[in-house]
Every structure is written in structure tokens, then in C-alpha cells.
UniProtKB/TrEMBL annotation, chain A:
Species assigned in the record: Oceanithermus desulfurans NBRC 100063
Protein name: Spermidine/putrescine ABC transporter permease
GO BP term (any one): transmembrane transport
Classification via InterPro entries: MetI-like (IPR000515), MetI-like_sf (IPR035906)
Subcellular location: Cell membrane
Topology within the bilayer: Multi-pass membrane protein
GO annotations of cellular component type: plasma membrane
Keyword Cell inner membrane: no
Gene3D superfamilies with a match to the protein in the record: MetI-like
TrEMBL record, chain B:
Top-level lineage group: Bacteria
Membrane topology: Multi-pass membrane protein
Transmembrane annotation, as ranges: 7-30, 59-86, 98-122, 128-152, 181-199, 205-223, 235-253
Similarity remark: Belongs to the binding-protein-dependent transport system permease family. CysTW subfamily.
GO biological process: transmembrane transport
Pfam families in alphabetical order: BPD_transp_1 (PF00528)
Keywords per UniProt: Cell membrane, Membrane, Transmembrane, Transmembrane helix, Transport
Cited PROSITE patterns: ABC_TM1
Name of this chain's protein: Spermidine/putrescine ABC transporter permease
Length: 289, 260
């Protein structure tokens, strides 16, 4: 294949999309990195010289010791991401087997997809209605003569809302793997004398890994970065990294510091992804993409 | 068989968990009371208000415009990308895949603020791209492209390459070969990708939140601000209608698939 011919083939297909991604994805991402070294000038715009001040502030390294405010917020975001991921796996894993083993598979699948297609903010808002002081939950508790719970606003509400929102993201890819399980492997394991647990662990669990890995990523990444759920169910009092970023680009208008926070969040997620990929093995990551 | 019974009990509890919030919204949409959750009698007045009050209509309209235009652009660009990625080997393939995965693997808040920053820089440097519907559409296409490409690419991967080769051997060149052979084969994949892109756009709040200027309020943006101020029952009615429409659409899709 000679050169000009090759370009006339590549350009019409790959050209437009590549240019789009370079301009609207790569350049903005690099801009975040660059801006994180700038400073806010008195007019609220950005100016040089380049400085590490934003990162110093984020990591709380001051002349008189460490101020862990933002590190604590980052830790809270990671905790929310991890707890949400574990909770959705614990809830979703048996559920995927429940769907796969049910005679009404299609109906159940439809029921999982449906909430997904209802506006995400409405579903989060519904939890406010349930948790608020005179809400559904307390009406129910009062009916049974129990004391009301003050769950809105609270971290509990934020956790429930996050787990609720991302549960279908775990169930759907996992189900795709569970549905394809070759059960004869389990029979073989039992014939070879493996008990129930060992049989499951060696013959069934590995077959669910591709879906589990995809699901975990689809839950962890948005949960770590959320600011909407914490804003609504925490009523502005539950602060995560996402909220810090949103505030800096909104009301506080310190885009340089906001960029540093955004870059730290991105770096944390990408590092987590890299570690996860090493743990999960290259092959299953390839299957995912 | 007790294992299966536990699994069923767990399944029922999960379904209750998934549907509790939705049931709450549906019930409230028929509740006479404007405030609180106490039941004050059945009414359809919120549905009537939804249709009569024109306040919400422009937001619905904006959402539809953004979703339609961005889906069209991202489906064309993403399909072309998938075709190129499936057909050709080239040195910067890895780099292109990396670019493609950026919107998938970085949190949407980071993508939102990076686009905001980008538009602000362009605005300062060139005086163009003021925040509005256009910037929202540009932002949506940027995350939709990745999903469209991945869906179409997986469809192409399941395709028998000999069909394309046979067409080439028979003398069908470039675009003819694409329209006559490849396109009909991957059309269902393209349709699925477009549907996914459309729903992602319609439901998107975060990217829109950062890239929308005044006059570019979409439905999710309006819902967010009304949740913060206090939701009106019209929103309950609108949500219930949306649930109804998606249920019917999904059932129709499943019926069609089952018949095949």
C-alpha cells in the first residue's frame, strides 16, 4: 500500500473523529493541568506566573504544619466510592444470578433497566421525599409507633442515594457474564470432589469476572466524582471533591484551585484504574473495552 | 433448594429498593396536596397544569434539540471512527484508543469543568463560543462519541470479514462497498449506539451544568434547580409520564426482539 493511498483511506474515516477528540477532549484535559499551575487574579480571571500554590493548598502543606481539610474531603470521596462499589457488588452479585435463573428473565431485566431511564435527579429527589422529617419513612415509622429518624440531610442519605443510583450499572454488565456461564464446569468440579464453596470459587466466579470488572469501574468512577448526590441529599453540608470542584468553578470562582482539585481527582481515579488493571489482569481489561 | 429461595427473597428486596423511589414519585403525581407527602385525595390536575403551563416547554424543547443534534453528529463521527479502527492498522492506533477512553474513565465533573475552561479560553482568545446551546451540544458529542464508537466497534468485530473482501473482489469500491455491504450489516449496531447516545444526552446533567449559558436551560438543569428550591407537583407528573413512555417503548422493543 503506497502512502498517499493510505491517507486517502484513513482520513475520511478516522480524521473527523480524531480531530474532534483532540480539540474537545485532549486540549480541555491539558488545559486543566496547565490552569492548575496558574493563579486567580483580582478580576477572577487567571494569570501567571506558574506556581505550585494550588497543590500546596490542596494538600494542606503550610508553613505551620499540615492542614488536612482537602485531604479529608478527598478521603471521604474515596470512601464513598469504595463503600458504594462493595455495597453494589454485595447486593448486585446474587441479584444477577437471580435474574439468570428466573423463568421471567426478560421482565426482570426490563425492571432493572427502567429506573435507569427515569431522570437521575428525580430518583435522587425521591430519596429526599422518603427521608425528610415528615417524609415517607417517618410516616411509616410513626404508624408503627416508632420514633422518627432524621436522615435528611445526612451522610446516610448520600450513601443510600449513591448506592441506589449506581446499582443498575453493576447489575447489567455482571448479568451479561452470568448469563454466559458454562455450568458444566461446576458439575465437573463437583464430580472431582470440590465442595460447594470451592466449586463456586474455581468454576463459577472466574467466569463472572469480565462483567464484574466492567461493573465495578462503571460504579466506582462516577461515585468518586459525584457532586450532585451529595449536594442534594446532604443539602450542601456533605462535601466531596466533586463539590469542591463545582464550588471553585461556580460561586468561589477560583478556577486555578478548582483545576488543581480536578486534576488530583483525575489522577487518583486513573491511578486506581491502573492498579485495578494490574490486579485484574490485562486480558480481562481488554475484554472490557 | 433453599438456596434458590434465599436468592428469590433477595431479588424481591432488591426490586423493592429499586422501585420505592419511583413509586413515591408516581403516587405524588396523583396527590391533591401540593406540599408534603400526606395523601389528600386523587387528582389529575398536575397533569393538566403540565400541559397548560408553558413554562416547562422551552426546557423540554432545549433538551430535545441538544439530544437530536448531538446524537446525529456523534453517531456519524463515532461510526466512522469504529470503521477506521476495525479496518486499518496504523501507528497511532493506541493513542487514538487512549483519546477515546478519556471521557469514559474520567469523572464527568472533571470533563465538565475542563470543557468550561476550554470554552472560556476560546471565548477570550477568539471572541467565539459563548456558553449556550452550541457549547452544550459540543460537550455532549464529546462524551457520546466514545460510547457510539465502542458499540459500533463491537458490532463490527462480530462481522464476517470475508463479506467485505468478497465485495472488494467483485469490484465494489470504497463508499459503494460501505453502503451496499457493510452498512446494512451494522445498521442495528448503529441504531443501538444512536439510541444510547440519545438517552445519555437527554439524561445528562453534569456536562450540561458546566457548559450551558443563560437561555440554554435543559430539562435536567431545570429539575435540579427546582429540587433545590422545592419541587412542584408538575415535575412528579412529568416524571411519571416519562416512566410510562420508556416502559411502553422498552416493552415494544422486547416484543419486536422476541418475535425475531
Amino acid at each position: 500500500m503506497n502512502k498517499p493511498n493510505r491517507w486517502t483511506r484513513l482520513l475520511p474515516t478516522l480524521g473527523p473523529g480524531t480531530v474532534w477528540l483532540l480539540v474537545f477532549t485532549l486540549v480541555p484535559t491539558l488545559l486543566i493541568f496547565y490552569t492548575s499551575f496558574l493563579q486567580r487574579d483580582p478580576h477572577g480571571w487567571l494569570s501567571g506566573p506558574l506556581t505550585l500554590e494550588n497543590y500546596r493548598r490542596f494538600f494542606g502543606l503550610g508553613p505551620d504544619g499540615i492542614d488536612p481539610l482537602y485531604l479529608e474531603i478527598l478521603g471521604r470521596s474515596l470512601l464513598l466510592g469504595l463503600v458504594t462499589t462493595v455495597a453494589t457488588v454485595v447486593i448486585g452479585y446474587p441479584f444477577a444470578f437471580f435474574i439468570a435463573g428466573s423463568p421471567r428473565k426478560n421482565l426482570l431485566l426490563l425492571l432493572v433497566v427502567l429506573p435507569f431511564w427515569t431522570n437521575f435527579l428525580i430518583r435522587v429527589y425521591a430519596w429526599i421525599v422518603i427521608f425528610q422529617r415528615k417524609g415517607v419513612l417517618n410516616a411509616l415509622l410513626g404508624h408503627f409507633g416508632l420514633d422518627p429518624l432524621l436522615l435528611y440531610p445526612s451522610w446516610t442519605a448520600v450513601y443510600v442515594g449513591t448506592i441506589y443510583t449506581y446499582l443498575p450499572f453493576l447489575i447489567l454488565p455482571l448479568y451479561a457474564s452470568v448469563e454466559k456461564i458454562d455450568w458444566t464446569l461446576l458439575e465437573a468440579a463437583h464430580d472431582l470432589g470440590a465442595g460447594r464453596l470451592r466449586g463456586f470459587w474455581h468454576a463459577v466466579f472466574p467466569q463472572t469476572l469480565p462483567g464484574l470488572i466492567a461493573g465495578v469501574l462503571l460504579v466506582f468512577i462516577p461515585a468518586v466524582g459525584t457532586f450532585v448526590i451529595s449536594d442534594l441529599l446532604g443539602a450542601g453540608k456533605a462535601i466531596l471533591v466533586g463539590n469542591v470542584i463545582q464550588q471553585q468553578f461556580g460561586a468561589s470562582r477560583d478556577w486555578a484551585f478548582g483545576s488543581a482539585a480536578a486534576f488530583v481527582l483525575m489522577a487518583v481515579v486513573l491511578t486506581g484504574l491502573w492498579l485495578y488493571a494490574r490486579w485484574a489482569g490485562e486480558r480481562s481489561m481488554e475484554e472490557l473495552v | 433448594m433453599t438456596g434458590r429461595r434465599w436468592l428469590t427473597l433477595h431479588g424481591v428486596l432488591v426490586l423493592l429498593f429499586l422501585y420505592l423511589p419511583i413509586a413515591v414519585i408516581v403516587v405524588l403525581s396523583f396527590n391533591e396536596s401540593k406540599y408534603g407527602v400526606g395523601w389528600h385525595g386523587f387528582t389529575l390536575k398536575w397533569y393538566r397544569q403540565l400541559l397548560e403551563h408553558t413554562r416547562i416547554h422551552p426546557y423540554v424543547w432545549n433538551s430535545l434539540i441538544v439530544a437530536t443534534v448531538s446524537t446525529f453528529v456523534s453517531t456519524v463521527l463515532g461510526t466512522l471512527l469504529a470503521l477506521g479502527l476495525a479496518r486499518y492498522r496504523f501507528p497511532w492506533r493506541g493513542g487514538l484508543l487512549f483519546l477515546l477512553y478519556i471521557p469514559v474513565v474520567i469523572p464527568d465533573v472533571v470533563m465538565g469543568v475542563s470543557l468550561l475552561l476550554f470554552f472560556a479560553w476560546v471565548q477570550q482568545a477568539a471572541g467565539a463560543l459563548h456558553l449556550g446551546l452550541t457549547t452544550v451540544i459540543l460537550g455532549h458529542v464529546s462524551f457520546q462519541i466514545a460510547y457510539v464508537t465502542l458499540v459500533v466497534k463491537s458490532r463490527l468485530a462480530g462481522l464476517d470479514p470475508s463479506l467485505d473482501e468478497a465485495a472488494a473482489d467483485l469490484g465494489a469500491a470504497g463508499w459503494t462497498r460501505f453502503w451496499k455491504v457493510t452498512f446494512p450489516l451494522i445498521a442495528p449496531g448503529i441504531a443501538a449506539a444512536a439510541l444510547l447516545a440519545f438517552t445519555l444526552s437527554l439524561d445528562d446533567f453534569v456536562i450540561t451544568f458546566f457548559t450551558a449559558g443563560p437561555g440554554a436551560t435543559t430539562l435536567p438543569i431545570y429539575i435540579f434547580s427546582s429540587v433545590k428550591r422545592g419541587v412542584t407537583p408538575e415535575i412528579h407528573a412529568l416524571s411519571t409520564l416519562m416512566i410510562l413512555v420508556t416502559t411502553l417503548a422498552l416493552i415494544a422493543v422486547q416484543r419486536v426482539q422476541a418475535r425475531r
